[in-house]
Amino acid sequence: ANIKQTISVTDHALGIITTSEQLQTQFSRLHTISRTKPILDWATRATQLDNLEAMLSDNQTGLAKAISADFGHRSVSETQFAELFPSFTGITHAKKHGKAWMKTRRASISPLYLPAHNEIQPQPLGVVGIIVPWNYPLYLAIGPMIDALTAGNRVMIKMSESAPQFAEAFAKAVAHYFSSDMVCVVLGEVDIAEAFSKLPFDHLLYTGSTAVGKKIMAAAAPNLTPVTLELGGKSPVIVLDDANLDSVVNRIMMGKTLNAGQTCIAPDYVLIPRQHHQRFISLAKAWMQEHYPNIANNQDYTHIINDEQFERVQGYLQKLPKDSVHPLTEVAINTETRLMPPVIITEPALDSDLMQNEIFAPILPLIHYETLDDAIQFINARPRPLALYVFGNNDRAIEKVRNHTVSGGVCINEVIVHVAQHDLPFGGVGHSGMGAYHGKAGFERLSHMKPVFVQAKINGMNLLLPPYGDFFKKG
Ligand code: NAD
């Protein structure tokens, strides 16, 4: 409701959409333009990337403040390094390589067809739809936009209703830096999101929960709109017996406290030999002292986005046996401000809500395993995760984990940072998603990589023509 009050009639003309009717009209416009004026040159695409960069650079303070306001408390430093930084470096990477990515390239050809040749010609798809979640609302809007615009597409982007202040600030910023023939921003609740997912886009890239991902795919099916689904799930950590616990705790706590655990690739739970549990907990307490002293009033520590999420996670905690809950600070949960200090849970029941759902909060279960095969089997008995993390020094054991598990991505002796590598495709597998983006992989995902066979103008080989006679007869 807040959104619609401050969006004016002129804003609509600028490509900010708040109703289903505007959605249909703008989509038809973009669809038509994409067919009549495909963006074939690098200069136009580079200008879009320049616009994106200028928009971010000129508005970064306001956009970061809007995200903080939506969360109540969102560390501005986190917005800077987890959202703005990868956005800027992603734009730089695309500006540097996009011209080469879009070139038509030669592909090899069987001697049988010489002197003809083969080419692969990347083409814009047309209109790409993007649906954004609330947890990193800036980077998960900008990241897909970079790939879509570099590939010469026009973009319609649906922001999350759970981060409304950011959504509105973002829409206004986009409207001032982009023509509405190029990018339109859609604001509104789930009804608009549903209407959006039913539009006959040339591609639809959705980031959000697995449950909604299924609805998106169903909505896209009647149009045969291809989808890229960037979903969630439980990303496990395996700590090998020989791992250096100090560094393990340092990395895992960093990943679990970032954005208060509201990160799709946050380490969800840790498989770790039982003899390490107590030391893990004391190291984690010391880590909190060092990195988030005075968590009750700490500008670096983010709070839970809204009451609905807070209640969901509190519900998980309340159902656990008291002796399995190990708070890492002296500070209590604050329902008013939605502050949730990190806790470790030892050996939660595997059928508990905590272990049946993606946690998406600073709660870290420690689960013991006996042999490495047991740990691998534990992971393989569950839906394929978005990320998998393994810590240790034994290269053969690490290789075994890599080879015998399937996950969207992997970090070895690290967490989370694989998402920021522009030369690595980012995406899930199975229930954690389909299709990957970022960098060249994202460019190709949102292009049509068109195969073209070019016959030689002279000496073109005469393919076998009828009458075939005995040519195909065996013997
Ligand atoms: P969500 O699924 O509730 O909402 C995401 C978007 O979907 C919003 O813009 C919303 O308007 C839209 N939406 C909601 N219902 C819809 C419907 N029926 N039809 C069409 N659109 C609909 O997800 P969320 O709570 O905003 O995000 C958290 C989830 O996203 C977590 O599971 C997390 O792991 C996942 N996630 C994944 C990645 C990734 O890159 N794989 C990144 C961030 C978050």
UniProtKB/TrEMBL annotation:
Keyword Flavoprotein: no
Domain Aldehyde dehydrogenase as annotated: residue spans: 41-451
PROSITE patterns in alphabetical order: ALDEHYDE_DEHYDR_GLU (PS00687)
Pfam families attached to this UniProt entry: Aldedh
Keywords for the protein's UniProt record, in alphabetical order: NAD, Oxidoreductase
PANTHER family in the record: ALDEHYDE DEHYDROGENASE (PTHR43570), ALDEHYDE DEHYDROGENASE ALDX-RELATED (PTHR43570:SF20)
Source organism per UniProt: Psychrobacter frigidicola
GO molecular function: aldehyde dehydrogenase (NAD+) activity
Protein's GO biological process: aldehyde metabolic process
Family in the record: Belongs to the aldehyde dehydrogenase family.
Catalytic residue list: E230, C264
Record-level GO cellular component terms: cytoplasm
UniProt protein name: Aldehyde dehydrogenase
